[in-house]
Write a structure and sequence with these properties.
Layout (H helix, E strand, L loop, with lengths): L1 E6 L6 H10 L4 E3 H7 L3 H11 L12 H10 L1 H25 L5 E5 L15 E6 L2 H12 L3 H10 L8 E4 L4 H13 L4 H7 L10 E4 L6 E6 L3 E6 L5 E5 L4 E3 L4 E4 L2 E4 H12 L12 H11 L10 H17 L7 H9 L1
Parallel strand pairs: 1-3, 1-4, 2-3, 4-5
Antiparallel strand pairs: 6-7, 6-10, 7-8, 8-9, 11-12
Length: 342
């Protein structure tokens, strides 16, 4: 599944694009609304620990006036709050995205995500909604009953959006916007449509890495002076791991069977035959019996004396990561030969 960041400044019409996508059945995550929902008693307790004062009112809910007084008067305090809030918002989004795993892609609607390092850059593409300055001013004035000066001040206070893969210009009518969204997301030659087709691209297990002591999988990006530059499957963050970090390619991993060693790519294929479109059991939650039963179906010849439950957990963890973030169809030696010939 792909994640598309939908962004844009105040008055651009970002929310209008989100509504159009929702009407087409696309799951859209409203980060502004979600952020407000995160001010639970538990989060307010974290804030109290951080700032040494309570931000709860008499009912135990967020005291909005006290929060506003803090973040608008102290830039350092605002940054400390963001360092609490945005990682929590990211985790909330990831959990929400898992609830919509059947969708081809989901949309994260946020005006500020690109400018908040603590949020993390984990999307696959960025769609920017933009409009002329005067159009945006007019919309803010009409929508919020604001003066021109207030509208300009609010526009100036927003950080500029980062680099976008697609820009939707929204200076016209709603019908024109609907056509622009169609062209950007759903037409055959649209960037997003082509991006979704990339989900059928094969995974190169020779460039898919496991790193000792690190959760999840990584894609090999390039060689560095001291080791390798890699990109995490889950959040797209890049790391520079040293040569002695314990890096192993999934291409080189096998499991023990009664008939010898079986390459991991073949194990994944057998699991896929049993599981179909379903994910493997959660490695953290599944019982040993559940895992053994799965492998008894998929790889009945596995060697129980040398292929342990701990190995099974790692294999199903990798299987689910590949299914979720990449593809269970793998690059072959023949594919590599054709690429070299080309």
């Amino acid at each position: 599944m792909k994640t598309i960041l939908l962004t844009g400044g105040i008055g651009s019409g970002k929310s209008a694009v989100a509504h159009i996508l929702e009407s087409r059945g696309v799951p859209v995550y409203d980060s502004d609304s979600a952020a407000k929902s995160l001010y639970t008693p538990a989060f307010l307790s974290l804030m109290e620990q951080e700032f040494g004062t309570s931000f709860a009112d008499e009912s135990g809910s967020l005291d909005k006036k006290k929060l506003s007084a803090l973040i608008f008067s102290d830039a350092s305090a605002r940054e400390r709050l963001e360092n609490l809030l945005y990682p929590a918002l990211k985790e909330h989004f990831i959990a929400w995205r898992e609830e919509h795993s059947d969708a081809p892609f989901v949309v994260l609607e946020s005006a500020i995500a690109q400018s908040k390092p603590s949020f993390g850059n984990f999307w696959d593409a960025v769609v920017l909604v933009d409009a002329s300055k005067e159009t945006r001013i007019a919309r803010v004035m009409e929508r919020d009953g604001a003066s021109r000066e207030d509208a300009l001040a609010r526009m100036a206070s927003q950080e500029k959006p980062g680099k976008a893969d697609v820009t939707i210009l929204n200076d016209g009518t709603l019908k024109q916007l609907e056509r622009a969204v169609e062209d950007a997301f759903f037409s055959e030659n649209a960037y997003i449509c082509k991006l979704l087709k990339d989900t059928s691209m094969k995974t190169d297990l020779a460039k898919t890495l496991s790193v000792r002591g690190q959760h999840g999988l990584f894609n090999y990006i390039a060689q560095s002076r001291t080791g390798a530059i890699v990109e995490a499957f889950e959040d797209k963050k890049r790391y520079n791991f040293s040569a002695n970090a314990g890096i192993t390619t999934l291409e080189d991993i096998s499991i023990y069977t009664s008939e010898g060693e079986m390459k991991l790519r073949e194990v994944f294929g057998k699991l896929h035959e049993v599981l179909g479109d379903k994910e493997a059991p959660d490695a953290k939650k599944a019982s040993p019996e559940e895992l053994k039963a799965l492998f008894a179906k998929a790889v009945p010849e596995y060697d129980g004396d040398r292929f342990y439950v701990s190995h099974m957990k790692k294999v199903v963890e990798w299987y689910n990561a590949l299914k979720k973030y990449a593809s269970l169809e793998f690059v072959t030696d023949e594919d590599r030969e054709k690429e070299q010939e080309a």
